[in-house]
Amino acid sequence: MLVERNGCRVEVITADITTLTLDAIVNAANESLLGGGGVDGAIHRKAGPELLDECRSIGGCPTGEARITFGYKLPARRVIHTVGPVWRGGQRGEDEALASAYRASFALARQNGVSSLAFPAISTGVYGFPKERAARIAVSQAFAAADEGDFSLILLCCFSREDALLYAQALEGR
Length: 174
Ligand code: AR6
Fold this sequence. Notes:
- The structure is a single chain.
- By secondary structure, the chain is α/β, with parallel strands linked by helices.
- The protein has a single domain (2-172), classed as Leucine Aminopeptidase, subunit E, domain 1, CATH 3.40.220.
- The protein has 5 helices and 7 strands, in the order βββααββαβαβα.
- It has helices spanning 38-47, 49-58, 94-111, 131-148, 161-171, and strands spanning 2-5, 8-14, 24-28, 66-70, 78-82, 116-119, 153-158.
- Strands 1-2-7-6-3-5-4 form a 7-stranded mixed sheet, sandwiched between helices.
- A hairpin with a 2-residue loop joins strand 1 (2-5) and strand 2 (8-14).
- Helix 3 packs parallel to helix 4 and helix 4 packs across helix 5.
- Ligand AR6 is lined by residues 16-18, 28-30, 36-40, 42, 84, 120-127, 157, 159, 163.
């Protein structure tokens, strides 16, 4: 499923994000930036120990913000580490914190000349954010970034076909 906005392709794919050759991939990290499970673990494993060294030197990242590193052994040149919210029922600013994680990632991408990038389904794994709700937020932030300009390709990279279907439905506006 793909949509063209302002010269930018916004697309939902099913893939292991660590295999993608793009200007940057986004990591769904935690506030320590010192690695973890899920997509974070996969990114650190593939990038190698130099990524952890660089992350250590950054000293963490609050929820809703983002930090950028090199990609080391990953095919992607850079990694944008962002911290999505832990789902606590929906009344604790989770929607805004998730939107902010996407916005901060796009802002950092723009500042660093990143024109093609991929996002995992931030917060929808261990952090428990409801997937359809997360998909709507991801799509609206991707469209806003495309409309503002500077991007050629924004991939919403799901790990399963089931998740990709939900993100594709959000992309179609359903
Ligand atoms: N490529 C693409 N997507 C993936 C991959 C992969 N290789 N591996 C997992 N996913 P999660 P969160 C999907 O739990 O909910 C970590 O321990 C996965 O199926 O990785 O933001 C961090 O250190 C799901 O759809 O991230 C934090 O402590 C999505 O990535 C915490 O988990 C996000 O799931 C962050 O939790």
